[in-house]
Amino acid sequence: MAQFPASNAAHSDHSHDHGIHHDQPASGIKRWLFATNHKDIGTMYLMFSMIMFFIGGAMAMLMRAELFKPGLQLMDPVFYNQMTTNHALIMIFGAVMPAFVGLANWMIPMQIGAPDMALPRMNNFSFWILPFAFTLLLSTLFVPGGMPAAGWTLYPPLSLQTGDSFPMLIFAIHMMGASSIMGAINVIVTIMNMRAPASTGITAISKYAVISQDQQNSGIFSKFMPGARMFMMVTITLMAPMMEEAPIM
Q: Judging by beta carbons within 10 Å of its beta carbon (0-12, 13-18, 19+), is residue 224 exposed, middle or buried?
């Protein structure tokens, strides 16, 4: 039997341990900066949404305090318009939309039996655009003329009265839109291409079994929701185009 020197065995063990060390997931700040796991990215989206909710909510509280009774109480009309504009932008683009994408990141892979989102690196990039976009938006508070005060629709003539902050606002909205589009593309591609075969009750039975079950169990639905059967069948058809080839339970 061949004998290996002890030094070679130790070197082999060291190399093995070194490989195991590199296979471990990143920890600390790197885990979040370079995250591709859908749950980590979903958590970041939801945390960011909560922070933006509190910032937008603080602006709403300032507005309600001003409207507590007639007359000017706490702020001048220009600053009030600034709070109205940025409250709406932050709540829509910073709280509601990221919350939806965060929930989609958490839930969709688990619901369709996928290991992760279809485009994990783009998923990471689409999130990290948002902190820069809202930092740019909120920094307009410190530029000459203050924050945008044109209303969240940004229509003239109020948009013509906004100073240096208006180009910053437009660029920030473009960044938010790019993030939202990338998140939507990721969700659509994941649902269309990464569904596990026979992962749900819909794809695990034949089309004819679905029709038969629907005819048997739709009594009370048909009385109160006449279109429920049609809606269900259209949804099933869209979700499982190859249902005739699916295995029968």
A: exposed
